[in-house]
Amino acid sequence: MQVKSRHHLRSDEVREIETALADQLGVAPDADAYELVELEDPTFDLVLVDGDPHVCYVDDEPFLTVEGANSHPPERSRVTVDAGAISFVSDGADVMRPGIVEADERIAEGDLVPIVEETHGKVLAIGRARVDGAEMLGDEGKVVDSIHHVGDDLYGFRP
Description:
This protein is α+β, with helices and mostly antiparallel strands. It contains three helices and eleven strands, in the order E-H-E-E-E-E-H-E-H-E-E-E-E-E.
């Protein structure tokens, strides 16, 4: 991933990120510095939180990266998968109903969500919900589109 530009965020931009993370995930990163890293890849822009790639913009919406979600564990909007789904989700597969053991009922169709493994509570991926949280459990069908996962270029990014 090639860096196009970098600059520190203004206080109003930082407040926007902090408010979005608190509202969506119940997370409040306590940081001294926020730096926007615009990447050549148009999929993401990244925000370094105290130098670590903890926030990304997905369709102009700030959200935690996998690394950020593991450093600041989300309290809400989580989709939890069983052990059988871990290898697939970690490789970037979309999430299917049979692999889900729990989903926050506050999730609305179209929301960004962290995908968490059930044993240790580690975040494996970030995705976009195709259905509301109350409809995620079941026997068949794709319910979360994977956007960013462990092992992808964004996960391995170092400034």
